[in-house]
Amino acid sequence: MLLAFDVGNTNIVMGVFKGKKLLHSFRISTDKNKTYDEYGMLVNQLLGYNGISLTEIDDVIISSVVPPLMNTLQVMSLKYFRTKPIVVGPGIKTGINIKYDNPKEVGADRIVNAVAAYELYGGPVIVIDFGTATTFCAISEKGEYLGGIIAPGLMISADALFQRTAKLPKIDLTKPPTVINRNTVASMQSGIIYGHVGMVDYIVTRMKGEFAPSAYVVATGGFANMIAEESKTIDTVNEMLTLEGLRIIYERNKE
């Protein structure tokens, strides 16, 4: 079995694959202060709860945008799974030709998403990842990573309103039924969520105009379904896109 780690700034998403089939997925909070033993025991508990022992994990692959956790998870893999993990980064075969000015600047999560989107949906394709930041990536018909956009995510926007204003409260990101609202909380929710929908549709329209009018649009990440319900430009939601990308990259590098 393969254990895949997608390490984001807010959450770590883990997936267990048997061949190409995703058996289980888990989401835990990202904590840079946890030791490799703490992560090892937490992963052991999650696997054990689903009837999987540590000895059944043959390989590990890690994608991380949190540098301090990379060594922690590598040591954890060596100690608890007796295997050196594949780490998404320079020297790894992805099958994607990165056209960024400096390819090393592209986050591992964006590369993994691009690999999965191109493999599953073909090109040209646009990937939108609703994480701590909302990122847009353009992949050409030939599988070239052309670049993209990085915007503040929904939680960042909500936290900024709360932290930078004296009277606005901290809110949950629940979509109100109307755009115009008569109380502060719903008005904030409306501005953040429907404002994000407008940003998504405008940026996707501009992206299509710049590189491919026929580009297929795939959304992933924690808020993907909520935004896709209102968006006119998102074609499909794949919540497991990053994990699928990690599996594909593993298969291209396992030998």
Mean pLDDT score, rounded?
A: 94
In terms of per-residue confidence, which ranges show pLDDT below 50 for 5 or more consecutive residues? Answer: none
How many H/I helical runs? Answer: 7
- Structural class call reads alpha/beta
Supply the CATH class of the largest domain: Alpha Beta
By CATH, the architecture of the largest domain is named: 2-Layer Sandwich
Proportion of beta-strand residues: 15-25%
Which outline best applies? globular
Spell out the helices and strands N to C. Answer: EEEHEHEEHEEEHHEHEH
Describe the structure.
- With 255 residues, this protein is of the alpha/beta class.
- The chain has two domains: 2-87, ATPase, nucleotide binding domain (Nucleotidyltransferase, domain 5), CATH 3.30.420.40; 97-245, Nucleotidyltransferase, domain 5, CATH 3.30.420.
- Helix content is 39%, strand content 25%.
- It is built from seven helices and eleven strands.
- The chain has helices at 36-49, 67-80, 108-121, 154-164, 184-211, 224-228, 241-253; strands spanning 2-7, 11-18, 21-29, 59-64, 86-87, 97-98, 125-130, 133-139, 144-152, 216-221, 236-237.
- The protein has a six-stranded mixed beta sheet, sandwiched between helices.
- Strand 2 and strand 3 form a beta hairpin.
- The chain is globular.
- It starts with a strand and ends with a helix.
- The active site is at residue 109.
- Its cofactor is K(+); NH4(+).
- GO terms for molecular function: ATP binding; metal ion binding; pantothenate kinase activity.
- ATP binds at residues 6-13, 132.
- Substrate binds at residues 100, 107-110, 184.
